Amino acid sequence: MPRRNPVAPPTRHACPHQVTEGSRTGERYPPVRERYPELVAELVRLLRDEGEPELAVAVRDVPYHGACDCGDDFCRSIRTAGRPGRGPYGEGHRCVPLRPDQGMLNLDVVHGRIAFIEILDRPPLR
Question: CA geometry: angle at 48 spanning 44 and 53, to 5°?
């Protein structure tokens, strides 16, 4: 049986996570894996370890909407979907905390889709 993370989701930092919805503007977003293949490979491994096989498959194709623009020097987070305003995601949201060797990785998942990859206290992405 896959192990589940018994730790409660960590406290989130104050990133605004705002983005313009691509479907409204007709923009196309490349997959995160094209920009950060090592990160996506790590996410796939960690999601499998946490018993999240569906998300391990889905993370390979999440779109890169841009870097978080919160301005915190410890934040390397990535927007993977549009989000209206600064409020919570609302119904259907869950936080999936992962256990990386370094820093923090959390996924915001809304109705089964990865909406945000929270990357904290890690070196800049390559």
Answer: 95
Structural domain includes residue 16:
no
Domain, as residue range, for 79: 29-120
Residue 91 and residue 103: Cα distance in Å, rounded? 28
pTM: 0.77
> pLDDT tens digits for 7-62?
434 444 444 443 334 444 556 899 999 999 999 999 999 999 999 999 999 999 99
Q: How far apart are CA 41 and CA 86, in angstroms?
A: 30
Q: Nearest 5 degrees, angle CA 85-CA 88-CA 92?
A: 120
Q: Tell me which amino acid residue 117 is.
A: I
In a domain, 116, yes or no: yes
Q: Is the dihedral of CA 93, 99, 104, 105 positive or negative?
A: negative
Six token digits for residue 81 = 């979907």
What is the spatial distance between Cα 61 and Cα 63, in angstroms, rounded to a whole number? 6
Total structural domains in the chain? 1
Helix, strand, coil fractions of the chain, as percent rounded to 5: 25, 25, 55
DSSP 96: E
